[in-house]
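Prompt: Have a read of the protein record below and flag anything odd:
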Amino acid sequence: MTLPPLGLTRRQFGAGLASLATVVASTARSEAALPAIDTHAHVFHRGLKLAPGRRYAPDYDAPLSLYLEQLDRNAMTNGVLVQPSFLGTDNSYLVDCLKQAGGRLRGIAVVDPAVSTDELRALDRVGIVGIRLNLVGQPLPDLAASEWKGLLGYVKAMGWQVEIQRNAADVATLVPQLLDRGVTVVLDHYALPDPRLGVADPGFQSVLKFGVTRNVWVKISAPYRNRPAGESFAKEAYPLLRNAYGLDRLLWGSDWPHTQFETTQTYAKNRQFLDTLIADARECAQVLAAPRPLFRF
């Protein structure tokens, strides 16, 4: 009796190679199909009406065309435009830019607490997916006031988010109030801990605890705004945030055009720092793709 040869036949070996090639190609297509989303950028030009009481006003233009160029140069598929504080509640330029972008971008608006439902619905239709509370240098809002209750009720009903820029100690106070209203919360720029304390800031430690709610996201953006530690702080903060929130609750943002830090920052520099911060390419790709459902891409 003749025994079959040991090991694989040529046909079996060839079939195995073909199967492996199919798996590799499928994986490559899947990874290539992942979006890469920049969740924090601003657009403006000097001809726009500025808000009274503003803390800062740029002396240059950052138009939509230049932002889209940054996305293309850095292999980013989508972006999110955040209403700058110096434009106040006039979101008209933001709306115009979203319309021009043809679905590639989403927006975060700044609104008056007494805004009408019709105005909110109109913003929703053009791609606005949340409101921003830029509270740096501002008094904290009374979220228990009737106008805030009404606004947050609309935000919840529309499935929008509330984005907060404020120091971590105050964020730790505000977030539970917002979660009690049932809204989704996004925290800007690593939640802005006390730069002297970094990750040891009690406010930042409180922010880490919100990860278990699964209704809070944190932007790992603009480490330079956590000066003087900057990038070294980000490298300490990232693993703590990853462990507390998971990759699907972390958002990367370029913070373009890096207002007040224009002389030291570029889009490419910040995108490259993300690759340094998250050395594992697949993990980095997951973070860049994570915003897709939150921002309705």
In short: The longest strand covers residues 128-134.
